[in-house]
Amino acid sequence: MVYSHITLDNKFHAVSILHLLKENNISSINDFYGPNLLYTDIDYQTSKELISNLNKYTLFRGTFKGNDLALKNFAYYLYLKMKKKFPNDFNYMRESYFMPNEINLIKEKFKNYKQTKNNLWLCKLASGSLGIGIYFIKNYTDSLKCNGIITKYIHNPHLLNNKKYHLRLYLVITSIIPLKIYLYEDGQLLKASHNYTLDLNKIDDIQSYLTNTHINENKDGYINDTSIKEIKELINNEGGKF
Question: Cβ distance 53 to 33 under 8 Å?
C-alpha cells in the first residue's frame, strides 16, 4: 500500500500518523492523486478538484460533504436514491416532500388538505435542531410556508406509560473495508414529558410529540438516564419487542 500525506495543523498528530504508517510498511509517494490512502486536514466540502481526481480505490480520512447528512431534506433525497437501488432495504421512512424543489408536488398534495387524526403532516426546518421550527400542517397555506421538509407523521407510535419516546444508541465505525461496527452496550431513553394525544385541539403541545432533551429537560415525567436493560424491560412490558 502507498499513501500521500499532507502536513496537518497539529504537528504531534502528523508525527503520530507518519509513525503508524511506517510501522505498517506503508510507503509514501509524491503523487497527490495516486495513493491508496489520503490523510489530510483539507476541506473536502470545497475541494472539487480533489474529489474529481481521486481514484475509486482511495481510502481517505473524513467524509465528503458529511455535514450535508445533517440536512433533513438532503438526507431524504439520498434515502430516495438508495430506495430506488435497494427497495427491499430502504423502506422505513415516511412519505416526505422538500421545499423548494418539490413545490409543485406539495401544491398538488395539499390543495384540498384537511387535518385529521390519521392524516397528520409535520413541517421541519432542513437544518433545524432543538425542536425549533417544527409544526403540524393544518391547511394548504401552512404547507406553502414550510421552509424545509414536510413529512407524514406516524400517528400511532409505540408508547411507554402513555408517552412517546425514542432511543439514542451509540456506535463506533473502526473500519470501512472490511466493515467493523461496535455498538455501545448502553444508551438513552428519551421520553416526552406530556402524555401523547391525538386531540386536534391540543396538537400544538410540542411536549407531547417531541422527545428531544431541549424541549423536555427539567419537565416532570422526563427520563433521559434509563439503562438499556431497563429500556428492554419497559418496552417488553408495554407490549413491544426489544
Answer: yes
Output the pTM of the full model: 0.68
| 59 — pLDDT class (breaks 50, 70, 90) | low
Complete DSSP assignment for 172-213: EEEETTTTEEEEEEEEEEEE-SS-----GGGTT-HHHH---H
- Helix, strand or coil for residue 14? helix
pLDDT tens-digit profile of 199-212?
998 888 888 888 88
- Does residue 5 contact residue 18 with C-beta atoms inside 8 Å? yes
Specify the 3-state DSSP secondary structure of 160.
strand
Q: Does 95 score more than 50 pLDDT?
A: yes
Q: Distance of alpha carbon 113 from its chain centroid, rounded? A: 28
- The two counts, helices (H) then strands (E), for the chain are 8, 10
Could you give the C-alpha distances from 86 to 14, 66, 69, 217, in angstroms and in order?
Answer: 40, 22, 19, 39
